Structures are given as structure tokens and as C-alpha cells.
Amino acid sequence: MTHVEQHNTILALRDHESRMTREEQTRFTGYVKRDKDDEELDEHSRTDLESLHAKYCPAHTKESIEDKWKKLFK
Predict the structure, then answer these.
(1) How far apart are CA 12 and CA 56, in angstroms?
(2) How far apart are CA 36 and CA 63, in angstroms?
(3) How far apart are CA 1 and CA 62, in angstroms?
(4) Which residues of the chain have pLDDT under 70?
(5) Model confidence, pTM
(6) Sign of CA dihedral 50, 16, 56, 12
């Protein structure tokens, strides 16, 4: 993960910080501080950040969006 990808991941997760548990929030604030100081994350922190991103910012496929629209208009 490059520094730019790390920064973009943190920016995307900032909107979902209120939904995180207390433990996840404390870890996330540590990642934000390290990103602010322009530090690279180690492998463990990087995988944890990626798992938080996968949990709170799921990728939407075209089919899942179409299914939601169908359910909305039924």
C-alpha cells in the first residue's frame, strides 16, 4: 500500500468513524496521527486498516445496486 492509498483509505474511513467500536476508534485515531506525521504503516497496521475499510466501506457491484433499486420500487 502506497502512502497515497493509505491516506485515501483513512479519508474514506473518517466518515464512518462514528459507527466504529471504541477499540476500533482508538486504533483508527492512531493511524490518523501516523498519517498526519507522514509515517508509513507497518504490515500489521496496514492489514488492520484494510480490514476496517472492508468492513465499513464495502465495494458495491452493479448487481447489488440494481437489486437495491428493485427492492425500493417494488
Answers:
(1) 9
(2) 37
(3) 26
(4) none
(5) 0.78
(6) negative
